[in-house]
Design goal:
alpha+beta; two-stranded antiparallel ribbon; 13 helices; 10 strands
């Protein structure tokens, strides 16, 4: 396997699977922050110390004990390829900018072990749909596997020691990526977000901290890692997520019952834009994809799979557009390329289902 294996397809293998409640919960993620004992944190260490960490992991963990992992070094990876990895959520934006960073990626892209980001080790496990418990089990398995080979920085009083104080303790970040168009359309998210914050959780955009919630996609995660067990943190997020699923379903039902024509008009207008546009920006693409996905989930639109929309969400990002084009594109060139890819992908899908629209 090489880097090309991870950047050639928009959808990771795990994203092609259907998970529980996948019409609303797009993915579940567990991330564990760990550091090596007697090694300075990445914010302070030298290039020699950083290289020693990478070499240690390359020698000990690029094996088939749990999965076939490949080590990708950030300083050997082109900026466009790193951007694609960020768009697929395989690495963080911070790691992409790191001069001394690296990442161990499993073949199915379900597991990513980021090295020398904010912490020496950040274990990430991604599962489709609402599967936080399964993601935690997988993350703990990788955590145990690594801990058999290295010594973690750990305090009996404070737990796992991390570069940022907000991660001290369990070092866990549990999160779900949710598509909540009905709650957003009915403006209920304006009151839900403050309520979630009061429960010790935080609502962010699709790429985490500092990112915007475009396309009605919200990331819900824990804020505190100290004073609770991993299981308690996951249970709390499970409870809030289950409530949000119920509220979103109720909002969708109410919208369909009280504003059916208006909702159908919105959905079909967005499908028409995607099917016929010649130029389209990222934000408008995300908005239209959200509308169409809602239409699919409510049975308004036939002949399209929500998987196509998952693919287009990533395929139309700037990095992937340029990857497919074979080089850098100016913003207006990306908008033209984005529109062409969307039209072609929708035409192909409708043709497969015997519902090709001559206007696409």
């Amino acid at each position: 396997m090489s880097l090309q294996h991870f950047i050639q397809d928009a959808l990771s293998q795990w994203m092609k699977q259907k998970g529980p409640e996948s019409d609303i919960v797009l993915s579940s993620r567990i991330r564990l922050a760990r550091n090596l004992e007697h090694v300075r944190f990445p914010t302070q260490f030298s290039q020699e110390e950083a290289e020693a960490v990478l070499q240690q992991f390359e020698q000990k963990f690029a094996s088939k004990d749990i999965g076939n992992f490949v080590l990708i070094r950030m300083n050997e990876t082109q900026p466009l390829a790193k951007r694609v990895l960020v768009e697929k959520h395989l690495i963080s934006p911070n790691l992409a900018e790191s001069r001394f960073g690296g990442c161990l990626l499993s073949e199915n892209e379900e597991i990513s072990v980021m090295l020398n980001e904010e912490d020496h080790i950040r274990i990430q496990c991604l599962f489709p749909g609402f599967q936080l418990a399964n993601a935690l089990k997988a993350a703990n398995q990788i955590d145990d596997w690594i801990e058999e080979q290295v010594d973690y920085a750990f305090s009996e009083k404070r737990g796992y020691l991390t570069s940022c104080p907000t991660n001290v303790g369990t070092g866990i970040r549990a999160s779900v990526m949710m598509h909540l168009p009905a709650l957003a359309l009915t403006r209920q998210m304006n009151r839900i977000i403050p309520a979630i914050n009061q429960l010790g959780l935080v609502v962010r955009g699709i790429y985490g901290e500092g990112s915007e919630a475009i396309g009605n996609i919200f990331q819900i995660s824990n804020q505190m890692t100290l004073g609770q067990s991993e299981e308690d943190i996951v249970d709390d997020l499970n409870s809030v997520t289950a409530q949000l699923i119920e509220q979103e379903r109720s909002a969708r039902k109410a919208l369909y019952q009280t504003s059916k024509i208006e909702l159908e008009d919105r959905v079909y207008r967005s499908l028409g834009i995607l099917s016929n546009c010649r130029m389209i920006e990222s934000k408008e693409t995300a908005k239209c994809l959200s509308d169409v996905r809602l239409g699919i989930d409510l049975g308004i639109i036939k002949g399209l799979s929500s998987n196509i929309l998952n693919e287009l969400m990533i395929l139309t990002q700037p990095g992937f557009l340029q990857q497919y084009s074979g080089g850098a594109l100016e913003p207006n060139e990306r908008d033209i390329k984005r529109a062409a890819i969307i039209r072609e992908r929708l035409r192909l899908e409708m043709h497969r289902n015997g519902q090709e629209d001559e206007t696409i």
